[in-house]
Amino acid sequence: MRIDIATLFPDMCMNYLEESIVGRAKTKGIFEVFCHNIRDYTLDKHRRVDDTPYSEQKGMLMQAEPIFRCFEAVTEGREKPHVIYMSPQGKTLTQKRCRELSQEKSIFILCGHYEGVDNRIIEEIVDEEISIGDYVLTGGELPALVLVDSVVRMLEGTLASADCYEDESHYNGLLEYPQYTRPEEWHGKKVPAVLLSGHHANIAKWRHEQSLITTYTKRPDLLDLSALPQKDLDIINKYCDFDKTDED
User: Fold this and answer.
1) How many CA atoms lie within 13 A of 131 on its CB side?
2) At 220, is the pLDDT very low, low, confident or very high (cuts 50, 70, 90)?
3) Residues of the chain with CATH 3.40.1280.10
4) In angstroms, rounded to a whole number, what is the distance separating the alpha carbons of residues 138 and 42?
5) Domain covering 2-152 in this structure, CATH number
6) Quick check: 94 and 173 in contact, CB under 8 A?
7) Which residues lie across from 3 on neighbouring strands?
8) Terminal CA-CA length for the chain
9) Do the Cβ atoms of 86 and 111 come closer than 8 Å?
């Protein structure tokens, strides 16, 4: 996979992408990433890429032309990549969408700044807008890095095995079960006995039960109770303060 990031802060992005699991995946050639400074594509002698918006709104808006020139230069001679604009107006990023994006051959991510970008560039090149939550940041760089991290870790070879992400929160619609490590007892709290038993079937059953309980307790909005099998509803009813009206 090839990932291009158009930004005003390429060093900021590359510094992160050189580190940890993502950095190792890049070194191994599992994906390649290029960060492009949009200022390099402006015709303004002062390297300005923004101007005041045609409205009474305060602030500055990124101009369409430097972004378009950057996009044209980066994609010249190759198939158009899937273009994403990181925006609080976009659909919220989900694990499902990350899986889908991990199948793309090439992604071009546009990072806005100031008050955003001229809407005409969105109409001209952008395929989808993605948000990482219902809040506003000063720029699209952090959301872009969140997107890259969440997509790259699903590429084959990034993690030791698919189990490393298939067993995590959100992958199958549930939050992850609680996890423990040594020592067996800490501050008077013991690791659940079932995890020490070595009985794989019982451990798998416990994990599923705990995922249901955790999801219902912390993020009930993720559960469609009407679609759950009766055995899962029985687990929630047994261990949680379950209100039958939640099914309606």
Assistant:
1) 11
2) very high
3) 2-152
4) 21
5) 3.40.1280.10
6) no
7) 33, 107
8) 44
9) yes
- 145 burial via Cβ count (<10 Å: 0-12, 13-18, 19+): buried
Residue (of 210, 204, 200, 199) closest to 235 by Cα position? 210
Q: Quick check: pTM over 0.90?
A: no
pLDDT, tens digit, for every residue of 125-146?
999 999 999 999 999 999 999 9
Nearest partner of 121 among 57, 72, 59, judged by Cα: 72
What is the DSSP annotation of the chain? -EEEEEES-HHHHHHHHTSHHHHHHHHTTS-EEEEEEGGGG---TT---EE--SSS--S-EE-HHHHHHHHHHHHTTSPPPEEEEEEEEEEEP-HHHHHHHTT-SEEEEEE-BTT-B-HHHHHHH-SEEEESSSS--SBSHHHHHHHHHHHHTTSTTTSS-THHHHTSTTTTSSPPPP---S-SEETTEEPPGGGGS--HHHHHHHHHHHHHHHHHHH-GGG--GGGS-HHHHHHHHHHS---GGGG-
Q: CATH says 185-247 is which class?
A: mainly alpha
Listing from the earlier edge strand, what are the strands of the sheet with 82-92? 32-37, 2-7, 106-111, 82-92, 128-131
Amino acid at 132: I
CATH 1.10.1270.20 range(s) for the chain read: 185-247
Which tokens go with 113? 């700044």
- The alpha carbons of the chain give a radius of gyration, in whole angstroms, of 23
Each residue's pLDDT tens digit, 54-66: 987 788 999 999 9
Give mean pLDDT, residues 166-195: 85
Distances from the Cα of 66 to the Cαs of 30, 202, 224, in angstroms? 30, 59, 45
